[in-house]
């Protein structure tokens, strides 16, 4: 699962991104990688490990819903 969300507001000079990615780890679990920052920069990343991929998907869905409530939208989608 991958999600790439953006939030732009020219009046506030805001151009942000938020990316979510789930990948398998070496021990049979899953890792959720959250990556965020200003568009055009390297940004920051945080990794969170889970015993099962279903747990990682649920956490990713929670973060995506939170960001969408704050005005982020999928790249190319109307804001």
TrEMBL record:
<feature type="domain" description="WGR">
    <location>
        <begin position="1"/>
        <end position="79"/>
    </location>
</feature>
<protein>
    <submittedName>
        <fullName>WGR domain-containing protein, predicted DNA-binding domain in MolR</fullName>
    </submittedName>
</protein>
<keyword id="KW-0238">DNA-binding</keyword>
<dbReference type="InterPro" id="IPR036930">
    <property type="entry name" value="WGR_dom_sf"/>
</dbReference>
<dbReference type="InterPro" id="IPR049809">
    <property type="entry name" value="YehF/YfeS-like_WGR"/>
</dbReference>
<dbReference type="GO" id="GO:0003677">
    <property type="term" value="F:DNA binding"/>
</dbReference>
<dbReference type="Pfam" id="PF05406">
    <property type="entry name" value="WGR"/>
</dbReference>
<dbReference type="InterPro" id="IPR008893">
    <property type="entry name" value="WGR_domain"/>
</dbReference>
